């Protein structure tokens, strides 16, 4: 199978990156909690983690079980994936110690307004949404792409309002983003 090597490379890359991100998140969680950070959304966090784990299981099973090949437009999809990875790094660097996979808010912390946060309220969720679509599409895994895009929409319907409430309750978030739509880009000074 000609596309088995790229598939293994992608899965290996994703496993390494996710492991590194979890290490960063844990370090940031400890740093924030030592300074009084408050966690929100713990009740849905496990469901979100399970969803992301099942994404990889479904993707691998669909790829191998249905013998899915590389997409006919794989160069375009791969280019999109690479752009999303740059956006992911931009998000993590912009938030610095405040970036996390959990919703943890440091009371009275200054709201981050640099990097992609000048344009979008939740660019990290944009990255995740794009990845859940582009990764399986790279290998023609349409069932995984559709199923987990829909599941992610359901998850974000819970997660984003929870994060918004958390930020409004402990920071000046509401005043800063008063006229800023959730998903529609708008430059904020």
Automatic annotation (TrEMBL):
In the bilayer, the protein is annotated as: Multi-pass membrane protein
Membrane-traversing stretches: 43-61, 73-93, 133-155
Among InterPro entries, the record links this protein to: ICMT_MeTrfase (IPR007269), Metal_cation-efflux_comp (IPR052527)
Compartments, record wording: Membrane
Listed A to Z, the keywords are: Membrane, Transmembrane, Transmembrane helix
One Pfam family from the record: ICMT
Give yes or no: UniProt keyword Cell membrane.
no
Q: Which PANTHER family match?
A: BLL3993 PROTEIN
The name of this protein is: Isoprenylcysteine carboxyl methyltransferase
Protein source organism: Neobacillus kokaensis
